[in-house]
Amino acid sequence: MDAVEELLTKIVCAGRQNKRVIIGVDGLSRSGKTTFVRKFASILSEKQIENMVFHLDDHIVGRSKRYNSGHEEWQEYYFLQWDVEWLKKSLLDNLIHQNEIELPFYDNKLDQHVYQKLQLTGKDVFIVEGIFLQREEWRPYFDFTVFIDCPRDIRFARERFQTQQNIEKFRNRYWKAEDYYMEKLRPVEKADLVIPYYELIN
């Protein structure tokens, strides 16, 4: 992908300045972010560029903080699913300044968090993947941002999403939050690179 080559060039240039590089991989749900991150991290490793990947969905809050809050469902998803300020200070800021961090990893089955210490020493590139990544609170931390662009009808075409109950949940909770993000933050316009979904599957 030409976009990947462009991104690699920027990373190499930053590396020559002996600085850590933080890449944000943005995109709406089921757009292919994880697929891209897996491939890109593998390319970095092949080029002997030490890297570490963070998935924001590993660090969501417990259910009691994001359901039945009294807010509309889409607001719970956009504003309450993650502790935005905490992640800014404890993850993003520490990627720049620390050699070790401790983060809570969410266990969906148990609805609990397990803390893990992660060593950052020796890493050249940190890749942070997640939806709504270009929030005003988070965006300044990224050296480069990638947006994976995939139409909604393709993202939710799989059979398991075709029950009426699932469609209603996605419409009221997830899709309204996505629409808010796209209209208010305009992440496609602000991203350094936009990769259409079809480039991921070709």
From TrEMBL:
Matches recorded under SUPFAM superfamilies: P-loop containing nucleoside triphosphate hydrolases (SSF52540)
All residue ranges annotated as the Phosphoribulokinase/uridine kinase domain in the record: 22-158
Keywords in alphabetical order: Kinase, Transferase
Gene Ontology molecular function, alphabetical: ATP binding; uridine kinase activity
EC number per UniProt: 2.7.1.48
EC category: transferase
Full protein name: Uridine kinase
Organism phylogeny: Bacteria, Bacillati, Bacillota, Bacilli, Bacillales
